[in-house]
Amino acid sequence: MYVLDVSITNAGYQDSRDAVRNIRFHVGAGELVGLIGANGAGKSTTIKAILDMLPVMDGEVRFPSSKRRYAYIPEQPSFYEELTLWEHIEFAAAVCNMNRSVWKSRASVLLNDFKMEHVIHHLPASFSKGMQQKLMIIVALLTEPDVYIVDEPFIGLDPRATKQFLHYIQKEKARGAGILMSTHVLDTAEKYCDSFALIDDGEMIVNGTLDHIRKYTELPGAALMDCFDKLLG
Ligand SMILES: Nc1ncnc2c1ncn2[C@@H]1O[C@H](COP(=O)(O)OP(=O)(O)OP(=O)(O)O)[C@@H](O)[C@H]1O
Questions:
Q1: Ligand 1 atom 31: the closest Cα is on which residue?
Q2: Which keywords are on file for this protein (predicted)?
Q3: Does the pLDDT value for residue 66 go beyond 70?
Q4: Contact, 51 vs 3, CB < 8 A?
Q5: What ligand 1 atom has the least distance to the C-alpha of 151?
Q6: What is the C-alpha to C-alpha distance for residues 101 and 151, in angstroms, rounded to an integer?
Q7: Which residues line the pocket of ligand 1, CB cutoff 6 A?
Q8: What is the CA(202)–ligand 1 centre distance, in A?
Q9: Nearest atom (ligand 1) to Cα of 48
Q10: Mutate to test the pocket of ligand 1, among 43, 200, 228 (most ligand atoms within 8 A of CB)
Q11: How confident is the model at residue 97, as a pLDDT?
Q12: Ligand 1 centroid vs 20 CA: distance in angstroms?
């Protein structure tokens, strides 16, 4: 069963209308798909196209299984300047119409796991980049959506937070959530992702499991990085 089905003919910006082209893949329930590509390949643009955040989008994105409940964890944290961390949590819970005792107990576990309890009444503008990213992650995990769309989570997080995030990703997969995660941290992607969509220069060059990519690149047993290198010439 798919929870996200993506078919982008072309999408982009006013001055570069086909920044990404011919991107087609899906994410299954309980599946983690890695959106892989070099800097500027088109990963964030693909994610923004999926979320309908671009001025140009010719294509179709479907969330077949669900009430279209997804959570987006952007590369650049974005938050309400005037709301504290706790108020962000309250707000997300209210928007998702969550039961009060459920969201409160979930929030307290998340705040503890991500070591953010000491700043719950602080404004996120006073947080470090990694702490702001943790806020985005906590709010997303709180709502237990059917689909997560995560743009490069590993850059700002410290090793402990990274480990915790990956732990939650696995837990959410086991719950049946589908996850699309862009990254260029290929060794982590290789270890955790079930399948991959490789993008280069705005186009998808291959899509499938590591085994499929190894066959495609004729590199049996190779690391994702080596397949990637071969594909990019
Ligand atoms: N706001 C924008 N306006 C015009 N072009 C843009 C804009 N944002 C990105 N682009 C262009 O779209 C292309 C893909 O960029 P994108 O940000 O999607 O890459 P990425 O794979 O996410 O890169 P990175 O790994 O560096 O985050 C690049 O050529 C970039 O210059």
A1: 40
A2: ATP-binding, Nucleotide-binding, Transport
A3: no
A4: no
A5: 22
A6: 30
A7: 13, 15-16, 19, 37, 39-45, 184
A8: 9
A9: 18
A10: 43
A11: 93
A12: 9
Instruction: Please check whether residue 178 is in contact with residue 27, taking contact to mean a CB–CB distance below 8 angstroms.
Output: yes
Stated as kind and residue range, the H or E segment containing 26 is strand 16-28
CA of 44 to the centre of ligand 1 (A): 7
Residue nearest to atom 18 of ligand 1 (CA): 42
pLDDT in tens, 156-196: 899 999 999 999 999 999 999 999 999 989 999 999 999 99
Span 90-130, pLDDT tens digits: 999 999 999 999 999 999 999 999 999 999 999 999 999 99
Question: Around 7, how many Cα atoms within 13 Å sit in the side-chain half-sphere?
Answer: 5
Which run of H or of E encompasses 149? strand 147-151
Q: Using CA positions, which residue lies closest to atom 3 of ligand 1?
A: 13
Q: What tokens were used for 232? A: 């990019």
The 10s digit of each residue's pLDDT in 199-231 is 999 999 999 999 999 999 999 999 999 999 999
The pTM assigned to this predicted structure is 0.95
Identify which of 3, 135, 133 has the alpha carbon closest to the alpha carbon of residue 69.
3
Beta strands in 155-230 (DSSP E): 178-183, 195-200, 203-208
* pLDDT given for residue 233 in this prediction: 78
What SS3 class is residue 68?
coil
| Protein residue with least CA distance to atom 12, ligand 1 | 19
Asked if 31 contacts 213 with a C-beta cutoff of 8 angstroms, the reply is no
Q: What pLDDT, on the 0 to 100 scale, is given for residue 116?
A: 98
